[in-house]
């Protein structure tokens, strides 16, 4: 049995045993100690109370606390928690009225004595509400601990992922070959277009600075990431021939919102690395836009036959694998990623949306 499955099964067993102890201690052993032949209606009410407490306990852990308390909706959380308790009190009062609980219990404790209706006592209602409050309090504490443990686990995973992928980012995303080839192109430019060579060298230096400093941070400005991508595309355009048709649209002005650095580059690099074949016509489409807090990236390139087994296309490459992992950790439930490499046109298409809000 796997350790994770074992821990899950152990947790279930612990919960079951805990509720059995609560049921025996509060709802079975104590009434039996009265040494009275209690009616079935009493035991039904005990079972109803236990069911309400269990439902409240797990409903608070899995729904109410995560949806309201942990979203900092404190007023709504208190209203729902306290209001639900009052509704349960009314439910139990309705049950008492329906089965004539007071009369039945009077006959059980004082058989043969005439029953005389008395003003309603709220002692049992108060005891139940305290039990309900205790159930909510304990479940809230457990939910808070679980939330802290989950956030700590994600944080540690991110730290481990960052450490294990620092080298792979440089190798798979901005590898030395790119820098060497770009420097060679700039060197060739110097002979006939010095100004263009200077501009290219400036872009390369900006990219190197970004890689060295921005990737050490957890988040960077989206505008910086977009500028980095623009510099990368500009330098790649120097290397491709006229047979490569480029259809590129990168939104110029974007909100200064934060994003994980070098999160988009693997998809763009994949277009140039595996969508271009020497001597053949190729096409590359890149569309990067921002609508509100939603960042959208669409890329498309031809799948060349000799690159069919390329690691990125098979989704097993270091760069893309790390990116998919980072997306799942950093933007869980905040992103959608569609990769299509089985269409009749034999194109490799990526459609990525990230909610950066």
UniProtKB/TrEMBL annotation:
Residues 166-243 form the Signal transduction histidine kinase internal region domain. SUPFAM superfamilies: ATPase domain of HSP90 chaperone/DNA topoisomerase II/histidine kinase. It holds the Pfam family His_kinase. The chain crosses the membrane at residues 12-30, 42-65, 77-95. One of its GO terms (cellular component) is membrane. Keywords: Membrane, Transmembrane, Transmembrane helix. PANTHER family: SENSOR HISTIDINE KINASE YPDA. This is Putative two-component system sensor protein. InterPro entries: Bact_2-comp_sensor_kinase, HATPase_C_sf, Sig_transdc_His_kin_internal. One of its GO terms (molecular function) is phosphorelay sensor kinase activity.
């Amino acid at each position: 049995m796997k350790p994770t499955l074992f821990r899950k099964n152990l947790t279930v067993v612990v919960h079951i045993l805990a509720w059995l102890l609560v049921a025996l201690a509060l709802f079975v052993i104590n009434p039996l100690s009265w040494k009275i032949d209690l009616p079935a209606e009493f035991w039904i009410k005990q079972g109803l109370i236990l069911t309400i407490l269990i439902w409240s306990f797990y409903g608070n852990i899995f729904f109410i606390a995560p949806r309201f308390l942990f979203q900092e909706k404190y007023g709504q959380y208190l209203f729902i928690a306290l209001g639900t308790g009052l509704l349960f009190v009314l439910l139990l009062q309705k049950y008492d009225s329906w089965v004539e609980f007071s009369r039945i219990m009077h006959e059980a404790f004082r058989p043969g004595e005439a029953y005389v209706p008395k003003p309603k006592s709220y002692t049992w209602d108060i005891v139940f509400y305290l039990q309900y409050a205790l159930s909510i309090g304990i479940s809230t504490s457990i939910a808070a601990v679980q939330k802290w443990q989950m956030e700590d686990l994600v944080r540690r995973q991110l730290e481990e992922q960052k450490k294990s992928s620092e080298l792979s980012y440089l190798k798979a995303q901005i590898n030395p070959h790119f820098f060497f080839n770009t420097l060679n192109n700039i060197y060739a430019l110097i002979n006939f277009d010095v100004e263009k060579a200077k501009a290219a060298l400036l872009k390369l230096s900006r990219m190197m600075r970004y890689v060295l400093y921005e990737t050490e941070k957890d988040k960077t400005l989206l505008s910086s990431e977009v500028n980095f991508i623009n510099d990368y595309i500009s330098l790649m355009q120097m290397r491709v021939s006229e047979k490569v048709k480029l259809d590129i649209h990168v939104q110029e002005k974007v909100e200064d919102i934060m994003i994980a650095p070098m999160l988009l580059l693997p998809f763009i690099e994949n277009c140039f690395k595996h969508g271009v074949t020497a001597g053949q016509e190729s096409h590359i489409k890149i569309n990067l836009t921002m609508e509100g807090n939603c960042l959208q990236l669409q890329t498309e390139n031809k799948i060349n036959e000799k690159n069919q087994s390329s690691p990125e296309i098979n989704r097993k490459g270091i760069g893309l694998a790390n990116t998919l992992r980072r997306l799942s950790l950093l933007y869980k439930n905040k992103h959608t990623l569609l990769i299509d490499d089985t269409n009749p046109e034999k194109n490799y298409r990526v459609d990525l949306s990230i909610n950066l809000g």
